[in-house]
């Protein structure tokens, strides 16, 4: 029994790790964010899985998004929790000037945003590789 | 013997040449930035179509100063914003950070538990223009805040938070001492690893990020002098000369790390931590851009 449980844990952890490490910069360049983050087409779980994969990479690259005090990670975890509880909405808490504030979103919208933020953060790294020099005076930026 | 002498001399020359070449790109970048800023503000009305397409002639002629030179940019947007400069001058008659400088001086002289003081690490307090430095042993950029914390740790003390409080007070004292001594920003790139750190900082500065897809340069290079609501955006050139600053928004003093964290938030990005490689490299690049400019801190900003 113990061996079976341990094997299950290793398998689940292995699958989790492989799915989290699956997203790469090259993958991000190929995908269409509107398609992969479409909740109707992929379901909330699918969209959140994509969000988790790409956000793990975004965090590793130091480019995670944060909007009005709420990080992509928080969008993902809180939306996952709300989805499991079969809630229709998700309430995200954040701090502003020392005070705790709340923001409530429709569940599908929060999942779409989590996914969109996670994927775009990584895609922008690819885009920046081609564009950053264009802004440097004396290099790509002519004046 | 002659052959040995020639070989040694040749090796020395090669070594000196390569040492000088580590900052070649950085010097090009710095000179191009100065040329860009000076051209942009030589005559804002005349340059309207090229640099200020959304401003009116009246705004540019009445509210903007022209003919601004490199060292003027240490004042930030007050270098060209006439209204902002007159408010700045009024506040600077009785600057709200004087108590912070005194507190910083007291911290500099206060004894650690081991009997030593900050003097053991920083014998001369006029060092604000010398940081960030690249530490070849650590193979990393060390900002002034990090150097202060290293000093605390070496002497068995707890490190401070890097954004405000004691850290900002001590840095205000260092900045004030540097300004009084007439010091200039003097950032060196003395190795290949240092040049790489500079390039990493430059790339980070010019890369678009966050959900708003802005880069630091969007506002502080191309956006310099453009208006966001009723404020004119400040230039990269001279950005590091006057920190820490007392910001009216903060109602207190804050370090460069605190300000950069605020910029990260404004870009819609999860901010980089003070002391992180990203933050240190960006500060290294920014400080290099202000090389040879007078240290002018602490100062006041909105």
Number of helices of chain B: 12
Quaternary class = heterodimer
Could you describe the largest sheet of chain A, including whether it forms a barrel?
2 strands, antiparallel
Radius of gyration of chain A: 18 Å
Number of domains of chain A: 1
Helix content range of chain B = 40-55%
**Low-pLDDT windows of residues of chain B:** none
Question: Total number of β-strand segments of chain B?
Answer: 7
Integer-rounded radius of gyration of chain B = 21 Å
Order of helices and strands of chain B: HHHHHHEEHHHHEEEEHHE
How would you briefly describe this protein structure?
With 143 residues, chain A is α+β, with helices and mostly antiparallel strands. Helix content of chain A is 63%, strand content 14%.
Tell me the layout of helices and strands.
The complex is a heterodimer of chains A (143) and B (302).
Chain A: H1 2-20, H2 25-30, H3 33-36, H4 39-61, E1 66-67, E2 70-71, H5 72-84, E3 89-96, E4 99-106, H6 107-131
Antiparallel strand pairs in A: 1-2, 3-4
Helix pairs in contact in A: 4-5, 4-6, 5-6
Chain B: H1 2-21, H2 24-40, H3 48-51, H4 57-63, H5 82-93, H6 98-109, E1 133-135, E2 140-142, H7 144-154, H8 166-180, H9 192-206, H10 216-220, E3 227-228, E4 231-232, E5 245-247, E6 252-254, H11 256-266, H12 277-289, E7 299-301
Parallel strand pairs in B: 5-7
Antiparallel strand pairs in B: 1-2, 3-4, 5-6
Helix pairs in contact in B: 6-8, 9-12
Walkthrough of the structure:
The complex is a heterodimer of chains A (143) and B (302). Chain A is of the alpha+beta class and 143 residues long. Chain A has one domain (24-129). Helix content of chain A is 63%, strand content 14%. Chain A contains six helices and four strands. In chain A, strand 1 and strand 2 (70-71) form a beta hairpin. Chain B is mostly helical and 302 residues long. Chain B has twelve helices and seven strands. Chain B has helices spanning 2-21, 24-40, 48-51, 57-63, 82-93, 98-109, 144-154, 166-180, 192-206, 216-220, 256-266, 277-289, and strands at 133-135, 140-142, 227-228, 231-232, 245-247, 252-254, 299-301.
